[in-house]
Amino acid sequence: MVTEHDVQHIAELADVGINTEELGTFTHQFNAILDYFDTLDTVKGDGAARSDLFNVLREDVVEPSLSQDDVLKNAPWKEDGFIKAPRVM
Amino acid sequence: MAPRTITFEPSDPYNAFLTRCSRAAYGDGPLAGVAVAVKDNISTSGIETTCASKILKGYIPPYDAHVVGLLKSAGAAIAGKTNMDEFGMGTTTENSAFGPTLNPCDTSRVPGGSSGGSAAAVAAGMVRMALGSDTGGSIRCPAAFCGIVGLKPSYGRVSRYGLIAYSNSLEQIGPLGKTVSDVSTLMGVIAGHDRHDSTTYNRPYHHAPDADIKGLKVGIPEEYFGTGVDLGVAGVVRKAIGRLEELGAATFPCSIPSMEYALAAYYVTCTSEASSNLARFDGVRYGPATDWKKSWHDAYKDVRGAAFGMEVRRRIMLGTFALSSGYYGKYYAKAQVARENVRADFNRIFRDVDVIAGPTMPTIAFRLKEKSDPLSMYLADILTVPANLAGIPSISVPCGNSEGMPVGLQIMGRMFEDERVVDVAYAYEQAVN
Fold first, then answer.
1. What is the pLDDT of residues B317-330, one digit of tens each?
2. Is the residue at A21 inside a domain?
3. In a domain, A11, yes or no
4. Which stretch of DSSP H or E encloses residue B63?
């Protein structure tokens, strides 16, 4: 059973803003969905590692890429070829 | 020689398109002059790509997805970008920030989702073919609901480079069309290795559908005709399977016990991957501007709260929860074991049969706003998610009507045997048409 306090905490961790009216709805829906997820408690087995998977690696070689203009084209705030972001501290 | 162009009618009575190209250039190749619509989560250089989300409103990709480059090389004319559930999260296309798509067969009903715009555009004859993406049924569901053909390829056969990621380990781009031949032709264009997607295999698709299925062994899982599956739909599909028998196929009952928890495993996996993938939408590099004078968390929370719809925030939060310390073992880790069990069930069944057949969806298309509760919408994916969890190919082909609405026959095959599921669908289609 998750509470409104739990959902508020998750929303903060995930940086998704939810308002007070939505909080009750989300909490109610969360509990129904998590109840359904409890069926995973019945899963048996250890999920043995698959033998058909392998890593695909390559040399780290610099290649032509998008121009700086193209990369910045969709950024809403920019200055002198940099993207402006909110302050961290 | 002057470049050739097609012009497109601007009317869009079903809201199938988010961006409609008024004209498109085309070249030579297997799709010369063929109008192809592209789902709006597939990047198109110079054409707005929103994933049906306000958070990408105005985003113009600076590059083409690998599959879009292949379409252009094959001579196709890109007709526009199709409506979808926001970021692919939904089964109805009602979760679009830009209004729902209507089902051309009955406009009071949904076209299915999340590739609902692609399916509606094909069903309405606005384009001959379309690309969709399928994370848990998002190609097959709308194909079934709109009465057209849709293929979810084997995981790794089609490049995801330029597909805006929702759940990387599950999703594949795939073709939709009115006929199996069209779907097969489009698959031939998009399949193959791409060095920009390290999960692709060097398995191009060079195949002309073959309708001879004499001696084919078809598994019929009891779970696909059990609780929750509408009796009308089940009846239509059973009749279609009878048709396969008349064509020389033999059917065998089978069981997929892991279906009991496959849907839960699917939703834990896709929401977990979504919570990570969608962290990039912060209004800094693209999307609506954050207030950069605010602190980091406040700025992100504001822009994401305002621009993500309810379902997207719900799934991001569910995934964040499933991955959080204390719950990881109970949810994410268990879901991965469950996923292996689904794969093991399919491997076991495919030792005895060549393909597995059943309904694509447990019901006909829902009425608009019928699925207002998220869990009841999730449950509608029960018959399509197993193929995504296992990575195997699966096709939906129209097989009749129930209550006047189309029903899809789903054919699943062994890993990388996309050609075989196409052949079975083709055999059925040729026999009934």
1. 999 999 998 999 99
2. yes
3. yes
4. none
